[in-house]
Fold this sequence. Notes:
33% of the residues lie in helices and 26% in strands. The protein has 467 residues and is α/β, with parallel strands linked by helices. The strands form five sheets. Strands 1, 2, 3, 4, 5, 6 and 17 form a seven-stranded mixed β-sheet that branches. It has a five-stranded parallel β-sheet with strand order 8-15-9-10-11. A five-stranded antiparallel β-sheet has the order 18-19-22-21-20, sandwiched between helices. β4 and β5 form a beta hairpin. α1 (13-24) runs parallel beside α9 and α3 (47-65) runs parallel beside α6. The longest helix is centred in the N-terminal third of the chain and has 25 residues, at 82-106. The chain starts with a strand and ends in a 6-residue tail after the last helix.
Amino acid sequence: MNQYDVAVIGSGPGGYVAAIRCAQLGMKTAIIEKYPTLGGTCLNVGCIPSKALLDSSHHYEDAVKHFEEHGIDIPGEVKVNLKQMIARKQDVVDQNTKGIEFLMNKNKIDVYHGLGSFKDATHINIDKDGKTETIEAKHTIIATGSKPSTLPFIALDKERIITSTEALKLKEVPKHMIVIGGGVIGLELGQVYKRLGAEVTVVEFMDRIIPGMDGALSKELMKVLKKQKMKFNLSHKVKSVERKGDEVIVKADDKKGEEVTFTGDYCLVCVGRRPYTDGLNAEAAGVKLDDRGRVEVNDHLQTSVSNIYAIGDVVKGAMLAHKAEEEGTMVAEILAGQKPHINYNLIPGVVYTWPEVAAVGKTEEELKEAGVDYKVGQFSMRALGRARASMDLDGFVKILADKKTDEVLGVHMIGARCADLIAEGVTAMEFRASAEDIARMSHAHPTYTEAVKEAALAATADRAIHA
């Protein structure tokens, strides 16, 4: 029987990062993955493939709508080759998963393919093709991630009534895609197919899209997406989804309680994700799950069993790949006797629509609820020379700062390249910067980051230069 200092169950961003950090710190490490490729949801059917399709569809939209204005003439009709688009997406995925294999070899981490399940607190069974192998591990890190959720009355056929996984490999552009859920995944994939020619209707239970983010971002994003001809039905409670041949019929009650019917050829169900512990046999190790199926952990990500830890989507908190990576690193360093720390308030959130949406820290709604005396500085992307040059005029940067101390409490932005710009806000807040600190930093001209400086100036003393 092979023995290890650490065994990691799951090879997504949390799991493979945890394994690498454990190996770096001198621990003999194994990683167990039930699927043939490493990388988990993020690399195989999540973050990476969806961004590949977002980029490809963005290029197509630019060619159709903007190239002529830029002085680029394309003879003939610009057409979508969906088969090639999906193939390129898969090539991107394959390159990334092979990269993880390389990192496992480089760090001398033993990789086991098969379903990992606890035999007891120190032994893990790995089942593959009807055969079982058992390994022994002094410590185990559960990193089994999450799966798309659905509603109890929805029967997913994975052909017309689909999740994000199937939406990444469609063989045709839908005529009318009904998206149930106005969160990150639904909006991103909805925008992909809207650009490619589909009619897209979003049906959302809450009274706004991206409900977990600052209200101003929700309002601005919906305004922009409406300009792009996406349709929104907020405060609608879906009560049935039925397929008839190649047609899908969705029935919902609107905010008045009146029934509304939507008919399309595809229905994309994006109502969140659920922690995935199927087949883990957690009870055999004594590991406790909470009432939502998540693994219970303390502040050190330690489960109810002292030598077993859990990270990422399978524990409480935001289901984000970079949050899982931070937790994987933290557990590895705890096992090595170090004292790492994660500030969960400084884990940024991003929506990869165009314009991109990004945020870190507290929202205005949270500050109001907590009774914090704060001030706001906001600056429009439209006022930037760089934004005019690239024709990316939508959006703004908003900085929330403490009214007395000027410490930055939250940064919220929507616009071009905000997924990258948000790192400036994270860095500033990590070092507890004031709005004035950001305002006094030199920002290159012309760049999108100037909007951050101007928002900080507006928050400092309402003195934005270009507003």
